[in-house]
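subagent[fold] <- orchestrator: predict structure for attached chain, return tokens only, no commentary.
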Amino acid sequence: MNDYEKICPVRWERAIALVDMNCFFAAVEARDFPELRGRPLAVTNGMKGTCIITCSYEARAHGIKTGMRIKEGRKLYADLI
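subagent[fold] -> orchestrator:
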């Protein structure tokens, strides 16, 4: 018995994995632009986008959510980036 079998003795024929990447694009922007790190950040659907397709955890702390309009997000937090 190897170390893995000691930790997880059950062997599955298949497994389904879910990767929640809802904040992924906001995290990529923060990685590419360090000045955005730790700030409420929203990503829209294009240059003239009006819909938030994802947002940072800092933005979520202010009630901003995926699917919300930018205008609504700025009502919740005026300095939303």
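orchestrator: received. Logging for downstream: The beta strands are 42-44, 52-55. The mean pLDDT is 88.
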